[in-house]
Write a sequence for this structure.
């Protein structure tokens, strides 16, 4: 049982990191990026192609991260600008439609050009004993990366000038603008950051299982569940929800079967939302 829970924590940290980018984009612009999973896969496939060309792992991974972040930035500077000029339900609906279209385009191009491509990072080393459970080196490295990036994000948002600007726009866009903060610049920065985080999740996931070209929709669904359960706009909430849902996922897969895991996750998310509509750490946002 402990091994199952540990595997759930490893998976949950990746879930949390995936939900962070989505929740920040929504908190800033009121838009759900339904292409989040496809950006993750795009970064993974670019890294895999570089590896196939003989590149070292680190440069290949960095290339994938940069490409995913650049594509996200271009999307913000082009497609999302007319979305941000709208308000209320018009903004939400237009954003959903446009990003859903982007998701289909990225999926279609990757499936057309690289139908059997996948990213798999084989991490060597003997298993490590953690509280009596033998953990693979790849799982531990993936967890360490997710924890490290999460800690950096929390510190960045709390203490860095740009991080404070992000928080101020989330809390009060008009007030932030009066204080000299450019909401458009902040949104572009966070959109690009969300692309990098998505690709990083795909990279860490590839340390334990292959990331294929058709994994985008699964990533997006998981990101949505984590963001909503954790509380839209809350980085800490996304990680807490990710860990909880990761444990639920692995326990369900172990004792019931993988074929109903998504249903169990959706059920857990529904119960959480009914009990706490603003999310686990979304106090004050109802």
């Amino acid at each position: 049982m402990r091994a199952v829970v540990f595997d759930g924590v490893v998976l949950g940290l990746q879930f949390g990191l995936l939900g962070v980018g989505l929740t920040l984009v929504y908190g800033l612009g009121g838009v759900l990026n339904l292409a989040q999973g496809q950006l993750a896969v795009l970064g993974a496939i670019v890294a895999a192609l570089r590896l196939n060309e003989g590149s070292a792992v680190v440069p290949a991974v960095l290339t994938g991260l940069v490409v995913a972040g650049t594509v996200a930035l271009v999307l913000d500077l082009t497609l999302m600008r007319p979305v941000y000029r709208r308000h209320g339900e018009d903004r939400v609906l237009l954003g959903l439609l446009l990003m859903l279209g982007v998701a289909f385009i990225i999926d279609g191009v990757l499936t057309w050009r690289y139908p059997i491509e996948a990213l798999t990072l084989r991490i060597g080393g003997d298993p490590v004993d953690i509280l009596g459970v033998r953990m693979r080196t790849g799982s531990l490295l993936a967890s360490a990366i997710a924890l490290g990036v999460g800690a950096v994000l929390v510190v960045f948002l709390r203490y860095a000038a740009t991080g404070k600007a992000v928080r101020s726009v989330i809390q009060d866009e008009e007030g932030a603008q009066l204080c000299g903060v450019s909401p458009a610049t902040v949104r572009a920065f966070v959109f690009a950051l969300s692309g990098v985080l998505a690709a990083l999740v795909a990279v860490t996931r590839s340390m334990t299982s292959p990331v294929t070209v058709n994994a985008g929709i699964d990533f997006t669904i998981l990101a949505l569940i984590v963001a909503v359960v954790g509380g839209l706009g809350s980085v800490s909430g996304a990680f807490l929800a990710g860990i909880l849902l990761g444990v639920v996922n692995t326990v369900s897969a172990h004792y019931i079967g993988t074929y109903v895991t998504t249903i169990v996750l959706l059920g857990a998310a529904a119960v959480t939302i009914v009990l706490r509509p603003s999310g686990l750490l979304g106090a004050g946002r109802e």
Q: What stands out?
A: The two ends are 37 Å apart (CA to CA). Residues 2-29 form the longest helix (28 residues). The longest strand covers residues 128-130. Strands lie at 118-119, 128-130, 133-135, 211-212.
